[in-house]
User: Fold these one by one.
Assistant:
Number 1:
Amino acid sequence: MKRNVILAVVAIAALALAGMGGLFADFSDIEISQDNFFEAGSLDLAVSNYLGTEYNGGIVPAFFEVSAALPCCDKSVFLDLENWGNGFQTVPRVYIHFKNFECGWVMPKYIVGTMEPKWITCEDGECVVVDPPAVLPIPGYHGTGLPKPVTEPELVAECGGIAGEDEDGNLVIVDGLGCCFGDGDGCELAEHIDVAIAVMGPWPHELKPKENPDLNDPNWVQLDLSDYDKNGDGDLKLNELECEEIELGKLPYCNGIWVHIMLHLQDIDEEDVYAEGLIPETYFDDTIPAEAKWDHWPTNAIQADYVGFDMAFELLQNPLP
């Protein structure tokens, strides 16, 4: 009995010593990383015109304001797009988006009673001459809800009539092309405005050019816009870019890029109109000098027509599909 008691005391003592041993830690070392944070970056696009006026966070004014343009007229604008954001991992891309097209006609600045135009409207695709509205719009009005005032050259091109003379001096009567002022499915003037876009850069802010760059600079890169040529005629028109996102290039943080946009108002060749089935035959041959001046009579159809549009500049983190 005494032996069993001694063994029990020894066992209890061993357990106690084991418990005391658990109070002492092994070797260790602890380092603490303090002040960790996760901060989101930003995309911040600023648009400047060639005068250096910067627009950021508000409404950007119109860059194209062209009135009374004649065929073969060009209008160019230079834009400076800059990324004032802060980020890493990916390089954002910048796009231009032509949208919100509005088509109509421009009220001519004629004197009432002298050279007063005809007023026409469209019915089932045909031109109809109508009485002028009771209250005439002011000159410069961009009309969409009224009949269209047209003078003789435009009236003939749109509604038909005498367009000129052949090589023998005989009068040539042409079929009209229809009312070309956007009062239908199309935006006619935009279908005859060529578009070209070139870019230069990007460059860090501290190396930004101090003035408008020279178009002869070899660093300009002409954008290939052939994918947007919907009718495949080799000429890109403004209407073909409506609602398209056109990538201008990568725009790193704290960098800028120059953009040159050129719009060109074309002549409309009679052969093209014939090929498109808009007239049943060609009336003049532009290879004969006496008839050459009549070869572009369809161009008269876009006289005093109007197209308004917006240009959205978009900076996106990831490329569009």
Number 2:
Amino acid sequence: MKAVLLISHGSRYDKTIDEVRATLDQIAKKTDVPILEYAFLELQSPDIPEGIERCIQRGADEILVLLNFLNAGRHIDGDIPRIISQAQSKHPRVSITISKPLGHHSRIVEVFADIIKNS
């Protein structure tokens, strides 16, 4: 069963959790993915290993780690792949893949243009 784990950086600002949950709710309305979870790299719970465990406990055998990050950097190129690799070693029968950051998406310019037009 397929799962999506939305990963965000995390913040000391509690509103972040509400925003991530709202994003996940919107994703649920637009997709038919049976398992949707969220996790944070740092500062908030659940962390990434907990998020992966939640997906697996709900029956996931395939997890797409959806990066809620704009561009590459230390976390995208190092920290997150390391954490995912550790989880993959722990759960070799589960396929875990990582998306590209949002800034790599072909429609990001359209999103920025829309923000500019509506500001």
Number 3:
Amino acid sequence: MKKLGKFILASSTLFNIFACQNTVVSSDNLEQQSQIQSNLKADVYPFDVKKDFYPLYEGSNWKYEIFDKNKKLLGTSTKSVNSNSLDSIESDKKNNYFIISMKKDQNVNTNEKSEFEQIRRQGNKLAFGRYDNPLYYPSGSEKITKAFDPYLFRPFVDFAANNKTETIKVKAGTFQCIKTEFTINLDAFTIWYAKDIGEIKRIKESSYGNYFNYELSEYNLPSKNFVIKKDSLSLDKIPTNIKYKAELAKKEYLKINQLPEGLFDSSSFLGFATAYVSHDNIKNLYDISYVSKSLAGKDNVRLQLSLDHESNIKNMSTLNENNEKSTYKGTIVDKIPTTLL
């Protein structure tokens, strides 16, 4: 990994950089990557680089040394942005933010279960952690009175131009950083970010006495290329042929499982119904989930579809978030209309 010194990004040039510049692509996926860049206009960086405290270029990676409270080296952790990873960068156009899942590779146990670290980016504001606990919000707030949304995040950190900076010295160099502090469940975080580089240092403490100090040792931001893996869309924004085939599958599913016709189409006082739609720019698939949930927890029905651009259904399932079967009034409703596959 190449260690970089301090560098300056000129915002006027970013909009003219070709997507493949400084990016190494194997011959096996050259055509696929070229198509991705064409579809996504990846030569346009979506944030104000003059204030950018977390550049999210394709192929970027950061390596950290992890210490305990006595400054003993425990191991290392590497984070990377890669459009071919499980989630990578997704966009939610409805709420005007990006969801970033960075792949983690570490050789020390820090009690972090996920192999991805997830943040939400909105302009020059950053929210740490993908999933949130609705109980975090004060009673009576708008968020806690609504059905749980898996895309809720903790409050944003605003990297404003007038934020005070602190000088932080680590193995990778000396940086002027903005300091942020927040808690997630029983863990307290203090993180320092440097403009044009990203996270420089992190201290994580828990009520159980665990303490981990992450310090940047190496980093590489090579491509100056922003790639979105998934776009979150509303159902009325997808092509007509895709929507027609998905609606047909939904009706057939409801029919063969003897479910009410309007199960996915209306909300009620005791639950809600909706559809989540995303477009996978890597696989060129539309992923659609029809969801109906009872707040009592007994009825939890989800039909998941993946369709290609020719409206062929590539996959259909009824598994819920925790790989549990859909149930309605205590009965499993998992019959799939196989004639559409």
